[in-house]
Amino acid sequence: MEPQRYRKKPVVIEAVHLDVHSVNPDEVAQWCGGEVKPHPDKGYIGGPFTVHITTLEGVMVAEPGDYVIRGVQGEFYPCKPDIFEATYEAA
After folding, report:
1. What percent of the chain has pLDDT over 90?
2. Can you tell me the distance from the alpha carbon of 39 to that of 78, in angstroms, rounded to the nearest whole number?
3. pLDDT at 22 over 90
């Protein structure tokens, strides 16, 4: 077996950075059809909330600092900042 190499096709997506200092989590939840819930770790320094997003794989949780992405087929999902920044650039 010989693995093949592949490159992502260049596509433009929409995303919101879930930054507690500049984004209203209720607006993000409304945009993605999600629900704002308290962060389960009361001592979490990133922010006091999470946004729960229903995806094809089930409910996924976006924490403060994550990005919420609308994919090419209109689906929403959270993405950790290190992965987002390595994968995407401003269009």
Report:
1. 70
2. 15
3. no
Structure tokens at 75: 């689906």
Residue-range domain boundaries for the chain: 14-87
Q: Give the pLDDT score at 39.
A: 82
Residues 6+ apart with CB under 8 A from 54: 33, 34
How confident is the model over 7-33, as a mean pLDDT? Answer: 92
Rounded to whole angstroms, the Cα distance separating 41 from 75 reads: 28
Residues 81 and 24: their CA atoms lie apart, in Å, by 18
- Rounded CA separation 57/74 (Å): 15
